Amino acid sequence: MAYICLAWGTSYWAIKVGVMHYPALFFGGIRQALAGLVLCGVAWAVAGRPDFSMRNLGIQMWCGFLMLTLGKGGVTWAEQYVPTGITAIICSLMPIFAVGMELAYYRHRKPGAAPVAGMLLGTAGICLIFKNNMAVFGDVHYWLGMGAVFLATLGWAAGTLANKRNAGSRNQLFNCGLQLLFGGLFMLAISPVTDDYSHFDLWNPSGLMSIAYLGIFCSILAYPAYMFALKYLPVGVATLYAYVNPLVAVVLGCVMLGESMNLSVLLAFATILTGVFLACRGNIERKVALR
Predict the structure, then answer these.
(1) Which residue, among 36, 24, 55, has the nearest Cα to 183 in the 3D structure?
(2) pLDDT, tens digit (0-9, with 9 covering 90-100), for 62-77
(3) Contact (CB, 8 A) for 27 and 79
(4) Which phi and psi angles does 107 have, rounded to 5°?
(5) pLDDT tens-digit profile of 136-155?
(6) pLDDT of 156 above 80
(7) For labelling alongside 179, which of 36, 66, 169, 236 has CA 20 to 30 A away?
(8) If you compute the radius of gyration of the chain from its CA atoms, what whole number of angstroms results?
């Protein structure tokens, strides 16, 4: 979990560097598709016996679309217009969305007071962010970016639950590669519709470094680690990286990109993370009580 926190916390900064030089979904798609091909090859060589059934391919395609095309793709597109710190803080709501979706799926289970309080605090934190950014109300791209971050967070939460329910398939490492590959290919298919190719410097050193860093450390290494955590840990525990990611992203955004943070954003950050803590803790305690 510590590695996931560090790798995905720094990914917001690396994505920002990438979208400065490449069309957003092209950049995200290339990164994920190449990482998927490498991971599939390694997994097949090391573990063997990949599952090529239509059912498994359909599951991995769906999970890849939710988590990578919507999740990572949405964040990548949004970072053209939204600061990395704000993006990471909104993405930290993911465990709350996952808990809410889980409660909606298992409707016979009544939510406890802690998850409800956590969801309310998370909502309050988002209201603080919007209140603090009313000055850019007329910037359509900014609000489209914010909407993309919310969609990305919902997609990642839904994909997390889908992966949790289908964690028993053989050769999980190969399945992770399939998800990366499918997610990247979907992004590349959508890219011509959403991206601007007029300023495209394929061989830019900073852009290539961001692709390499994100592909190796945040996709090939971190994504299977997250799937492993999902398989053996409750969703609330496996998503605890959400506490650390925003802090890493905010610090890097300030130091490396010159992004500014004010009291309202820091208060929103504290409110959302408190909400995430309550929602996850309450959900874990409820599951333990049901056993």
Answers:
(1) 36
(2) 999 999 999 999 999 9
(3) no
(4) -65, -20
(5) 556 788 889 989 999 999 99
(6) yes
(7) 236
(8) 18
- Alpha-carbon distance 240 to 7, whole Å? 14
In angstroms, rounded to a whole number, what is the distance separating the alpha carbons of residues 84 and 10? Answer: 10
Residues 35 and 40: their CA atoms lie apart, in Å, by 9
Banded model confidence at residue 111, pLDDT cuts 50, 70, 90 = low
Residue 111 is classified by DSSP as P
Write the DSSP string, 54-96: HHHHHHHHHHHIIIIIIIIHHHHHHTTTS-HHHHHHHHTTHHH
Q: What is the pLDDT of residue 175?
A: 93
Label residue 291 by pLDDT band (50, 70, 90). very low
Measured between alpha carbons, how far is 118 from 122 in angstroms, rounded to an integer? 6
pTM value is: 0.84
* C-alpha–C-alpha distance, residues 153 and 197, integer Å: 26
Single-letter residue type at 24: A
Question: Average pLDDT over the chain, rounded to whole?
Answer: 83
Q: Is the pLDDT of residue 43 over 90?
A: yes
Task: Locate 101 and state its tokens.
Answer: 């979706």
E strand or H helix that includes residue 146: helix 140-165
Residue 263 in tokens? 């009291």
Long-range contacts of 248-251 (CB under 8 A, 24+ apart): 248/5, 248/6, 248/9, 248/10, 248/88, 249/9, 249/10, 249/12, 249/13, 249/84, 249/85, 249/87, 249/88, 249/89, 250/84, 250/85, 250/88, 250/89
